[in-house]
Amino acid sequence: MGFGRDRKQIDPNLKPEELARQAYARAIRLLGSREHSSVEIRKKLGEAGFDSDIIDATLEQLVAAGYQSDERFANGYAESLLRKNYGSMVINAKITSRGISSSLAKDAIAAAIKERGVDWSMVAADALLSKFSSTQLSDSDQVFMGKCARFLNRRGFSSTDAIKAIRLAAETVSE
Question: Around Cβ 102, how many Cβ atoms within 10 Å?
């Protein structure tokens, strides 16, 4: 008995109409759990054994019905990552790694910034405050500051925003 889901492969002897119906049903199940990019759906349907013509037709139907939208996926994913205190560089990389174009990823980040009125140094300060204790942030030395800067860099913040965030976090803790 294995762990995880049993992946049911398609029967290649089925009629094309039945294959198309199965592909559509599988894609709807995928989208029922969370938004997916078109590239993710294409990959998952391909792994299930559907051919590219059926996958293309399924994606066209999903987009036409409004069930799948790369723009909606990118906007939601950008907002989710921003709530988790990631910086713009990591947000962009994570969105594009899901098959979204760089320009659409940048538009999604811009929309999230506009909607929330984002100040990246404040987001970075929030990331620091959630990662490190107030004691660490209040009596910080140069070694610890370097650790904070590296942490923020890995989270996708610029060096300028990291420096501002370290100051902001230290001020917030000392107040």
Answer: 11
DSSP label at 78? H
C-alpha to C-alpha distance for 86 and 68, rounded to whole angstroms: 25
Kindly report the backbone phi and psi dihedral angles of residue 85, in degrees, each rounded to the nearest multiple of 5, phi listed first: 65, 45
65-113 tens-digit pLDDT:
999 999 999 999 999 999 999 999 999 999 999 999 999 999 999 999 9
Asked if residue 138 lies in contact with residue 174, where contact means CB atoms within 8 angstroms, the answer is yes
The angle formed by the CA atoms of residues 78, 121 and 135, to the nearest 5 degrees, is: 115
Residue from 70, 67, 69, 109 nearest 86 by CA: 109
Q: By C-alpha distance, which of 75, 144, 149, 85 is closest to 114?
A: 75
**Domains in the chain: boundaries:** 16-65, 70-116, 120-174
Architecture of domain 16-65: Orthogonal Bundle (1.10)
Using the Cα atoms of residue 110, residue 111, residue 115 and residue 116 in order, give the sign of their dihedral: negative
pTM of the model as a whole: 0.84
CA distance 41 to 24: 10
- The owner of tokens 């590219």 is 52
Residues 6+ apart with CB under 8 A from 158: 87, 89, 120
* DSSP at 146: H
